Amino acid sequence: MKPPHLNPRLASLQIYPFERLRTLLAGVTPNPALRPIDLSIGEPKHPTPALVKDALSAALDGLAVYPKTAGLPELREAIAAWARRRYALDALDAGTQVLPVNGSREALFSFAQAIVDPVAGAKVVCPNPFYQIYEGAALLAGATPVFLNDGLPFDSLDWRGVQLAFACSPGNPTGRVLSLAQWRALFELSDRHGFVIASDECYSEIYCDEAKPPLGALDAARQLGRADFRRLVVFSSLSKRSNAPGMRSGFVAGDAALLKPYLLYRTYHGSAMSHSVQRASIAAWNDEVHVRENRRLYAAKYAAVLPLIKAPLQTEMPDGGFYLWIRTPIDDGEFTRRLLGQYNVLALPGSYLARESGGANPGRNHVRVALVAPLDECVEAAQRIMQLAGSL
Ligand SMILES: Cc1ncc(COP(=O)(O)O)c(C=O)c1O
């Protein structure tokens, strides 16, 4: 029998990090004397706030209607008002500069499909290490992903042929936040080469110093006199901010000239958000009390865990997000295997979150640890990680 026709680009997708992790750990028996602690996945575990659940259950009648892709005007206004507050924007128009999306992941992916023109030589820039969806989005859109290793200046890259550049700030896995100077450099390159910037900011509300919220791209654009947000779209989400990853709710905001065709794309793709979820999202974006409480819980974990991680390991307090990006003295895959086998702690090898570029994989000899488990488990995991490090 002839095999079915398939989109040949599907074959270019890379194996997802968690599948590689399963393969790596096949045959490793976790130490049964110790309780298992899983810090491998960036899934928030703090409780979803009651106000979000209540708003969702009060809006179940919404299941009876087809929602519009553009979302309810009330949701768009709640999102625009939140972004104006958060980024001190003079203006962000709910009608043209904001769209609800079903979590930032689908939006990061679908945005690339709407934006990229798959001509020969089309390139999409991804940070490195990075969130693998950027690479898959680029490949399926018909572009070649190009990687910019962490720490290298933007102008070290050849930007010719680049149509889209992903930024991730705060970064997964490094937790680094792009500075105003870095945004200025990226905007200037975008002006020169015409590429679109997709700024993934789904960790923007997770940070330890209440006085220092991470700089966002919209804020940077405003400060640099680019209030029209030309060629810039920001991706945000309730998953981490409001501990609601199962709600699949986020937004995109920025250049109206890009959001209009993107809305057209989304209409065909069929990615409207249920009215029930929209109502719950309005409640979530309108409240900051639960977000501050969420930050307090993460800050307590960093305060307890960070001092425990010492030489021969190396790590630092991230600017944002809920990860520790730890440098290991041995191969990260081997470290991960021993950590599970000897200490029943699950982490993610850093090299699985990065690509070889410029002769190096910038994730090599790192592991990513997500501080999502309860505080006592995070502390115990850090102690076990240090036991392993001490035995190397
Ligand atoms: C960097 C990054 N971007 C986007 C997402 C997707 O989040 P969501 O689709 O839940 O908004 C994640 C999820 O872990 C992430 O780590």
Question: Strands, helices and their partners?
Answer:
Blueprint lengths: L16 H9 L11 E2 L11 H8 L15 H15 L10 E4 L2 H12 L7 E6 L4 H8 L3 E6 L12 E7 L11 H14 L2 E5 L16 H7 L8 E6 H4 L8 E5 L1 H14 L5 H11 L3 H17 L17 E5 L4 H12 L1 E2 L1 E2 L16 E5 L4 H16 L2
Parallel strand pairs: 1-10, 3-4, 3-5, 5-6, 6-7
Antiparallel strand pairs: 2-8, 7-8, 9-12, 11-12
Give the C-alpha Rg: 21 Å
**Sequence of secondary-structure elements:** HEHHEHEHEEHEHEHEHHHEHEEEH
- Report the sheet with the most strands, covering strand number, pairing sense and barrel closure: 7 strands, mixed
- Percent of residues in helical segments? 25-40%
Which shape, going by the Cα principal axes? globular
Give the count of helical stretches. Answer: 13
| Total E-strand runs | 12
Strand order of the largest sheet: 2-8-7-6-5-3-4
Distance between the amino and carboxyl termini: 54 Å
Bound molecules: pyridoxal-5'-phosphate
Q: Kindly state the mean pLDDT as a whole number?
A: 97
Percent of residues in beta strands? 5-15%
* SSE-based structural type: alpha/beta
Question: Low-confidence segments, ≥5 residues, pLDDT <50?
Answer: none
